[in-house]
Amino acid sequence: MNLSLHHHPSFSVIAVEGDLYGAAVEDVLDLFSLVPVEQSLIVDLSGVGILESTACAAVRDELRGRTEVASLAVVVDSNDVSLSLVLHDVDRVAPLVRRREDAVTLVTGVLAGRT
């Protein structure tokens, strides 16, 4: 599994490549802790092949804690991973999009409209 965190002026991106299950979930949660709660966030799961239910729940719970103060988006291009996220209500916490560019437009567009 490969993890990365990129900070931009108005948002951060956590990107995951590989299968996400077991102990790897803790590594992803560690990255969440490096992003301030009020920072808008994109979670890019487009490189994930297998997403275990505990990973879905962990991502959902981390995002849920940010919904009131930050713009959020999740990038996913696998139908199987997308279905897992929907079954665990991640789509009710943050929009699911197919491309990172769409996520950037979404979170920066929301930021531009805030006062």
Q: How many distinct folded domains?
A: 1
* Assigned CATH class: Alpha Beta
SSE topology string: EEHEHEHEH
Q: What's the tally of helices?
A: 4
Write out the strand line-up for the largest beta sheet, numbering strands in chain order: 1-2-3-4-5
Measured on Cα atoms, how large is the radius of gyration? 13 Å
Q: Helix share of residues?
A: 25-40%
- Tell me the number of strands: 5
Structural class: alpha/beta
Distance between the termini: 39 Å
Low-confidence stretches: 111-115
Averaging pLDDT over every residue, what do you get? 92
Q: Quick one: biggest sheet?
A: 5 strands, mixed
Apparent shape: globular
| CATH homologous superfamily label | STAS domain
Q: Estimate what percentage of residues fall within beta strands.
A: 25-35%
Descriptive account of the structure:
Helix 1 packs parallel to helix 2 (53-64). Strands 1-2-3-4-5 form a five-stranded mixed sheet, sandwiched between helices. It is built from four helices and five strands; from the N terminus they run ββαβαβαβα. It has helices at residues 24-32, 53-64, 79-87, 100-113, and strands at 2-7, 11-20, 40-51, 72-75, 96-97. The protein is globular. Residues 111-115 have low confidence and may be disordered. By secondary structure, it is α/β, with parallel strands linked by helices. 38% of the residues lie in helices and 30% in strands. The protein has one domain: STAS domain (Transcription Regulator spoIIAA), CATH 3.30.750.
